[in-house]
Amino acid sequence: MPQLTFKTRTKFLIYMHPRDWYNAGDDAKILLSAAPASSEIFVFGRPGDDERLKRSLEESSSALLLFPDASAVSVEEFLDQKQGDITADISAPGVTAIVVIDGTWNNVKQMQKHFTKEVAPSVPHVKLMPTSLSVYARTQTRKDGISSVEAVALLLREFGESPVVCDELVRYITVNNEALRLTPPVADDGDEGETG
Fold first, then answer.
1. Nearest CA to 79 among 59, 64, 99?
2. Residue-level pLDDT at 88
3. Annotated domain spans of the chain
4. What distance in Å separates the CA atoms of residue 40 and residue 46, rounded to the nearest whole number?
5. What's phi and psi for 97, nearest 5 deg?
6. What is the pTM of this model?
């Protein structure tokens, strides 16, 4: 999964449930390959990570939490409130931090409450309107459920990111899915060359 070149001035702050930290199938880690210079993982409950996340949010000119709760606004409403262009070189001033809560639906609801109360009460929540089914290998518990990376790709597309880059980001999920389906080789018992 080679690094992608994004035209949007965004950084990805992945707020990950501890169970997903060790999950090889977790898709949010794909962002570390796709955008290593502008992605960072924070583990929910790990000492110091809430403080690091707060600092990273403070360093951004604007931020959003990608989460479809009752207070969430549409992407269009967020962009109207922001009143700025987020398409330009990532090194330009004015980077928008996209916080992605990563975990199963039951886990992320608890994390969202903590994030909103303890980490960043003033960060707006943004919701998406997905129109396609998820390609993610993990079973979705919601009809409109999509993976973290699919959500990021949809958001970036609405921000004006290149459709080619967004499609490639989603393709990385299928690459990860295929890697998870591979059967590991059978261990060699040291009897090479013998038959029968």
1. 64
2. 46
3. 10-178
4. 14
5. -90, 125
6. 0.80
